[in-house]
Specification:
Blueprint (H helix, E strand, L loop, with lengths): L1 E4 L10 E7 L2 H23 L2 E5 L4 H4 L8 H4 L5 E5 L1 E3 L9 H8 L20 H18 L3 E2 L6 E2 L2 E5 L23 E4 L9 E4 L1 H4 L4 E6 L5 H8 L19 E7 L9
Parallel strand pairs: 2-12, 3-4, 3-8, 8-11, 11-12
Antiparallel strand pairs: 1-2, 5-10, 6-7, 9-10
The protein binds the ligand O=C1O[C@H](COP(=O)(O)O)[C@@H](O)[C@H](O)[C@H]1O.
Length: 266
């Protein structure tokens, strides 16, 4: 059972925002698969392609129902283009790789053409891999696969399916780290991530905030403190990264279980 709350986000008065709360993680997984499949159908019909950005972490497990019937058969996987909002700079077969996590949990089970899955070049340094990934994105904009936001001048992905750490970090944008203030680059790198492994690449806030749709998926009591702060209408200057995700011209949806919103006052 979902509780659907659609109110202006305290930090995003101008952007569309809603919170969907479910009794269990299983219910979140059911709704997230439906949401993603519906967006895929919408964008494939409108523009003949669907650009989907994944995070690592627990998000991939909660996406599991997308690789099951009916979506396994009904989604037009041939039109999908898959990206990572962040990636650890490790070999693609390493246990810490976000690519490996998504491959094992989703991509190996659905028929997305291999050339439309944009993993990082794991032979490069963190800086080199970030520059290389941005170059690939720029080429996809030229090809018309990836849209641009008229509002921001940054790429506009059709959907970003994101998780959040217990500290409120999203992508590899961590609380108090200078990377949260990057305003020019599309993709940047970090060599001192407070969460291991230390070397990562990450989309920047201008790119995240240019998305058409963002699903922020939060499960479990470990996320409750950050969820409470993010959903509070009392904003302080020490914004968590998740509070800096404010879409310019898109729709932001929280998918939460009861435990994750257990500290939120309705
Ligand atoms: O390190 C990372 O952590 C976040 C959150 O992960 P979770 O396991 O707490 O859901 C994830 O979204 C990000 O992609 C990943 O690199």
């Amino acid at each position: 059972m979902a509780t659907d709350v659609a109110v202006p986000a305290p930090s995003a008065a101008a952007s569309k925002w809603k919170r969907l709360t479910f009794d269990t993680e299983e219910d979140v997984a059911v709704s997230l698969a439906k949401y993603t499949a519906e967006l895929s159908a919408k964008f494939v019909a409108e523009r003949g392609a669907f650009t989907a950005v994944l995070s690592g972490g627990t998000l991939i497990e909660t996406l599991r129902k997308l690789a099951e019937p009916p979506y396994l058969e009904t989604v037009d996987w041939s039109k999908w283009h898959v990206f990572w909002v962040d990636e650890r700079v490790v070999p693609k077969d390493h246990a810490d790789s976000n690519y490996k996590l998504a491959y094992d949990g989703l991509l190996s089970k659905v028929p997305i053409p291999a050339g439309q899955v944009y993993a990082i070049n794991d032979a490069l340094s963190a800086e080199g891999a970030a520059d290389d990934y941005e170059t690939i994105l720029r080429q996809l904009v030229k090809n018309g696969v990836l849209a641009m936001s008229a509002a921001t001048g940054f790429p506009k992905f059709d959907v970003m399916l994101l998780g959040m750490g217990p500290d409120g970090h999203i992508a590899s944008l961590f609380p108090g780290h200078p990377l949260v203030n990057e305003k020019q680059k599309w993709v940047t790198h970090i060599t001192d991530s407070p969460k291991p492994p230390p070397e990562r690449i990450t989309f920047t806030f201008p790119v995240i905030n240019s998305s058409a749709y963002v699903a922020m998926v939060v499960i479990g009591a470990g996320k409750a403190g950050a969820v409470q702060k993010a959903l509070s209408d009392k904003k302080t200057s020490d914004l968590l990264p998740v509070e800096m995700a404010v879409l310019q011209d898109g729709e932001f949806t929280w998918f939460a279980d009861q435990e994750a919103v257990s500290m939120v006052r309705n």
